[in-house]
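Q: What would this complex look like in 3D?
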Amino acid sequence: MHLPSNRSPASEIREVRCVCPGCSLACVVSAMKNPGAAESRRLLGLLDGALVREARLWKVPVFKNGRIQGADISSSQHQEMILWLGEMSRLFQFCPETFALGVCVLNRLLSTVKAQPKYLKCIAFTSLVLAAKINEEDEVIGSVKDLVVRSGCSFSTAELLRMERIILDKLHWDLYTATPVDFIHIFHALLVSGHPHLIPSIGLDSGVRWDPAPEPGALPASPGHQKRPSDFQAALWTRQVQHCMACHQLWQFKGSTLALAIITLELEALTADWFSVVTDLLKRAQVDSVEFIHCKEMVDQYLHSLEFSLPANAIYIFDSAQIQEQERACSPVQHLWKARRGRGGGGSVQGDSDEYYDGFRCLYDDEEVNQGAEGGDVKHLFDPQQGKDVSPCPPLHPAVN
Amino acid sequence: MIVDLVRSGLSPSGSRAHWFHTLQVRPRGRRGRSNSDPLGGTGCEGDAFTWGPGLQFRAAQSYLSLEKLGEGTYASVYKGISRINGQLVALKVIHMKTEEGVPFTAIREASLLKGLKHANIVLLHDIIHTRESLTLVFEYLQTDLAQYMTQHPGGLHSRNVRIFMFQLLRGLSFIHQNRILHRDLKPQNLLISYLGELKLADFGLARSKSIPSQTFSSEVVTLWYRPPDVLLGSTDYSTALDMWGAGCVFIEMLQGAPAFPGVTDVFEQLQKIWTVLGVPCEDNWPGVSLLPNYRPEWFHQSEPKQFRAVWKRLNQLPHKTEDLVQRMLTRVPTDRISALEALKHPYFSTLPPPIMHLKDMVSIFKVPGVRLETEVRDIFNPGRRIKPSLLLPAAKCW
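A: Here is my prediction, written as structure tokens for the whole assembly.
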């Protein structure tokens, strides 16, 4: 992450009035103090801009029989390559946005040209270097030659530069796109500014008092609070999205859909109030709900298979070995039931269950038509009794405090 | 008064022929949108096209290099001509370091400009990329603001300042809406056409700030035009960065001299600023003491001064001019006026109203009544005197 070392609570609080992209804590403070219409407008503008760029430039290779259509690259080769890019990005201390942009460039190229497997690594690495040239300040990038040496790759700088020319040419120098990581940041900021009541439950409130009008004299006394608590959540989601970008089943989803799926999974588990929040974001991001549900399931599956979803105290406990097979046959409704089971526990949640259920019905309407074969009354799936034989895992909050 | 004359369509006698004598004189009216068309548009198109049958974009032989216009650290700029359509172009030939590939400045400039089409942003026509060289082909503009100010020393005509400022802010407002920070505003990077169209150029340091809470290097913007928050080491700057630079350019156009010039390091630069605005403290800038370069003891204490006392030209102009400058040259970045707000400032209320509702690609010179005034001083034409009758009302106007 690209955290400034010299951030002060006070300077962030000044940002509250900022009309320009500011920091997310400012959004929190602003949202707490006043619902901040201007701030929401700004963030929605940011979201719209990102959606436009995504719509214009988002492109991923099509897989047929486990291989990229027209090329001899298998999905597992591709996946390995993206994981390796993640390693490289960490090695060079690039920020997650750079990794994400590099992957977007790689995917766009692979969907544009027929690449041979022997060039795959060079293409991937060059994509990352291009992303760094765009995204990182020049003091971070260092020399290209040095990057090649540190990567341990066998290709020469000359090859890399030739590839650079090819990529720029094939993509018409049009490299600025909105990545899944960008969407994580934007949705996160929208959440904290638009739904301040969620802040305690999504781990944004770490007990640090952020007084918007502090005594000037008191300021220098609190330099320890420079790392913003809200960053923690965004950083966690960013890590999750980076992992998901390496999963070839998840490439087919746009970054906006993927980011929203990750955030929704977390909100579901952490707050009883997630549904209205998510529908609001879905609408704003113009994400197709069928695709969204599909994506959310796959993300859930994938993150659990990685045993990654949250640090230390994970929210759901699943038998990850069984998930792979089960999920394929699993209908969205069953899946939600599982999600609910995970969230359950608190008695107060029960009273609201009908409301949630109606919500699901809305969301899943299209799905159910397709899944007509399942037929019958799906309502029984939501019967609280059903969950009795499985011991519900109490919802655990992330270890922020 | 001049405003009234122009509005009623009675331009001062004799001024029309040399209304912008500093550059080429050319009949108005027949011109298309582009100002890089040396052959004057439709009449010569036939000729132009016979030049290059089969010539294509993205090919080096499609452009003819004419004369060198300038040399920078990362590129040389040549005047050129397109053999495809006969248009004048500016060829920015990027110095390629064999080991590093395409410089990040070129990648950012090209990929950012790809998405930016606006009357006040320089137009990128073409990119020619070979193994040995990289050339960005831009529309050709005759001069830049730095040269223009050199040619017309002692401050520009106040009405021209308004026209240039409006265009500068219009361009900034557009890129800021697109979440792009220019990060290198200075007169050299503001290109000017013979008509007076101003366009933002040199996006080599520009960045897209497309996500909240993104931070950047504080080593940006030529020192003279760098805002105090960034001089103090702030890295979470945003669009207010460019607004400070625009404020400095504003003063420079009025005064004919840079607002905060002639220093070598960050601390001297800050002292220059504090001399006018006063040394900040937590009371008037909460959080300032936490910025890395904040060392109040290193600065001579100075009280804020009236801008008109520092920059004398402001004394001769209506108060709203000083008011806009003050809103741009504000120490606390979040208090600085935005480009969009600045366009709505009363300072611009004397411009014809349709100017506020133009489409992105439409030049303000399409609006009737918008034109550049003859500058009072011109080093290329020192003998020339403006009729006293013209000068007097103008002076009163100030």
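A: To summarize the key features: The two ends of chain A are 20 Å apart (CA to CA). The mean pLDDT of chain A is 68.
Q: Very helpful, thank you.
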